[in-house]
Known about the structure:
Two copies of one chain form a homodimer.
Chain A: E1 5-14, E2 34-42, E3 47-54, H1 59-69, H2 78-83, H3 85-93, H4 106-127, H5 131-136, H6 140-145, H7 158-168, H8 172-182, E4 184-192, H9 198-210, E5 215-219, H10 224-238, E6 243-247, H11 254-264, E7 269-273, H12 281-291, E8 295-298, H13 305-313, E9 319-320, H14 329-343, H15 356-371, E10 380-382, E11 396-397, E12 400-401, H16 415-421
Parallel strand pairs in A: 4-5, 4-10, 5-6, 6-7, 7-8, 8-9
Antiparallel strand pairs in A: 1-2, 2-3, 4-12, 11-12
Helix pairs in contact in A: 1-4, 3-4, 7-14, 8-15, 9-10, 11-12, 13-14
Amino acid sequence: MTELINSVEAVDVRFPTSLELDGSDAMNPEPDYSAAYVTIRTSGGDKGCGLAFTVGRGNDVEVAAVRALAPLVVGLPVAEVLGDLHGFSRRLTGDSQLRWLGPEKGAIHMAAAAIVNAVWDLYGRRTGKPVWRLLSELSPEQLVDLVDFRYLEDALTRDEALDILRRAEPGRAERTAHLLEHGYPAYTTTPGWLGYDDDKLVRLSKEAVADGFSQIKLKVGVDRDADVRRLRLARQAVGPDIRIAVDANQAWGVQQAIDWMRSLVPYDPYWIEEPTSPDDILGHAAVRKALAPVKVATGEHTHNQVMFKQFLQAGALDVLQMDASRTAGVTENVAILLLAAKFGVPVCPHAGGVGLCEMVQHLAMFDYVAVSGTHENRVIEYVDHLHEHFTDPVRIRDGHYLAPTAPGISAEMHPASVAAHSYPDGAVWKGKAGA
Amino acid sequence: MTELINSVEAVDVRFPTSLELDGSDAMNPEPDYSAAYVTIRTSGGDKGCGLAFTVGRGNDVEVAAVRALAPLVVGLPVAEVLGDLHGFSRRLTGDSQLRWLGPEKGAIHMAAAAIVNAVWDLYGRRTGKPVWRLLSELSPEQLVDLVDFRYLEDALTRDEALDILRRAEPGRAERTAHLLEHGYPAYTTTPGWLGYDDDKLVRLSKEAVADGFSQIKLKVGVDRDADVRRLRLARQAVGPDIRIAVDANQAWGVQQAIDWMRSLVPYDPYWIEEPTSPDDILGHAAVRKALAPVKVATGEHTHNQVMFKQFLQAGALDVLQMDASRTAGVTENVAILLLAAKFGVPVCPHAGGVGLCEMVQHLAMFDYVAVSGTHENRVIEYVDHLHEHFTDPVRIRDGHYLAPTAPGISAEMHPASVAAHSYPDGAVWKGKAGA
């Protein structure tokens, strides 16, 4: 009997992080890290887990969006889905009615991400491989077949994508071995949340260096004098050789970004992240031109591959920060990695939140093994937070992500964690309201 | 006692239009025109109505998004809301948790549009004015106070916006009188849906001319030979002096758009609408450069003012098609009209669907009276469809929208229409599934 996808379940899971001010920044003063947590089950008894990350209120809308997509998935033959993941992705993102809510952006696109990632998780489990390795063992032809080139061809053709992948093919085995031994470089945002006082900032910055990180990140953008003071303190704490990135989380207009950053330049910021609206490609290009050699980084809110294409075409970023569940999951992120490789721009994925570190490590490691072939100037964001809720949590050693070895995409949560944090009825939320 | 906003109600209203293939195009073969229909009520017994338009599935997600925003609105003093509509808009679009679902895009931004428009409707009712007139009687200072300049200042400053409005001020009374007498020019999409056969296309094209329209629109993008044939037939039917726009609804890649359109050029298309991804600013600029003097039009899926800013900065469009409920309603659309005026680009609003004609006419008429000061090369889209469900339906005479005179934004539906089309329990939907 043909094995079918039997169910797509979505649960509203929220963590009351606003109580601790972990995760506080210029635009997100009180996040409750949350996930629309998706489990797909097949008639053969297999499953796959994925999630869309949100910051609290609105997680119910995300769950509703997953449920709106679910009828497009339930009843499909598993072999057909796994045999044409490009087609599966277009099925979700191209539905003639649901795409009106995007197209390919916002709540409905993030819901597609959760489902697509769950299907990749299923694929990994069935092949017994972590997703980074599953991807890294696909042929160049199989990989380009994942890509929807319709809106990309003016920047990246199928042949160019094939060339990139073929050039990287000979070194795959060697880089896989290197990854399994050494892991992939990380940087940490743990010291730099806006809600932390100076002492905590200095202490955590020093700890980060002691723990082997070669880059840390500070949130900025609310109080200019405080930003100058905090960056100065952090620079004194870590010395001249550690990279310090700063992140404004969209707080500024274009000229304001340029002016504000000029007061931070004396303390050698490595990159400025999200200086302005995440939709403002031309604005980022202007900021980049004005602030070079300080690098411009963005991507966690860049909603699809067409936007990334333009950021690259316009020379608007130095560092591309892909997200695991903002664009439509692994499938679209393969296209984005290929775009970045075409333009020679390093990908340093966005992580933190809930499960983002777990998922995005697979993309960066695949990039290293089979796409860009390097991790020079590439680091995965790391935040030491909420990993205990996952069955295959990230493992960090000496400032590196160790390569996951369990099959799948590492997005599965412990059933007890899901139950306790279900909103609004889980034990953690009983009698509490969100921030 | 202070009058408060007591409730924000959202209803899932759907019309089974897929049964007739009205509204069929290259990307929307079977739309069920729908609305997340919003009614705001105050403790003083006043109300305001607004809606977010969708095309069927997903309208429930839109309703969920409105409900997620509602707690930010219920309990606010009415005078405070109407006295600071800029602040009210930022309250909705800038909520630190909900904005993660956007920011300022997709389902959550459209939900903000529905609420913002309902508040403008309330404002119009309380002042006894249709919204176009209410806007046209605000001072330049009051109008620029509506605008969120944070991400716009590199293209439009507050002073420049003030200058535009002050230049138009002396002619306001004269243009208001002209509008009340002659109305505002319209064009019609009624003849050109893809689902119609050639005979119906020709017959409806001739009828449109006889009805006084000087522009019609054809959907294209599925079958190139058929598009050539249909445009040829339409051109023969209407003669050389009637403008024929064509609309690909995002069907093409950049080069494909250029190639396909070149086979239509012999039949003198006036504009090509949505040639490619609505997010592809640089792609539209390339299409425009290649196809001039054929004009490039887009906007119904342009999700916020930052995107419009860039379309204008990049010289990527000739015709700006604002939408009443894609960006965050009247307030954000005031900013977009000012941007268009700064760049000298005509605004020809997107309409059709459910209630879009009703709402958007207010914006075009305000533009004529108080912003651009002209309707040269400006037309509002018109589709003869579903107006009977509204209490203040658009009135068309000799190819012109007559200026609405009833207070508000014309988005209120008859209670019986709402009840019958409520999904899935209304009488129209009993025993039926959506397309």
